[in-house]
Amino acid sequence: MSNVQLKVGSSLYTGWTKVFVRRSMESIASSFSLGLTGEMSNSTKRLPVNPGDECEIFVDGELVIGGHIDEIDGN
């Protein structure tokens, strides 16, 4: 299984249960969606990320998408 990392500022987050990255030549905008790890999804704490934060998604160390967080579900 691939190692997927979300980078926000200088922090890296890993251990996702679901990962979806969409990039298309037909669409100007790319998108991504990540599912929380079991530990984080059962916690009352949330990741210290907010809509508007700059972010990057790395798969096996390679940058695959960069942009800004639009929304955070469940918070």
Write a concise synopsis of the structure shown.
The protein is mainly β and about 80 residues long. It has one helix and six strands. Strand 3 and strand 4 form a beta hairpin.
- State the order of secondary-structure elements, H for helix, E for strand: EEEEHEE
- Summed over residues and divided by their number, the pLDDT gives a mean of 81
Portion in helices: under 10%
Radius of gyration: 12 Å
Topology record:
Elements: E1 4-8, E2 11-13, E3 18-22, E4 31-35, H1 38-41, E5 54-59, E6 62-68
Antiparallel strand pairs: 1-2, 1-5, 3-4, 5-6
Name the features:
75 residues, mainly beta, four-stranded antiparallel sheet, 41% strand, globular
Can you walk me through this structure?
5% of the residues lie in helices and 41% in strands. With 75 residues, it is mainly beta. The strands form two sheets. It has a four-stranded antiparallel sheet, with no helix packed on it. Strands 3-4 form a two-stranded antiparallel sheet. The chain starts with a strand and ends in a 7-residue tail after the last strand.
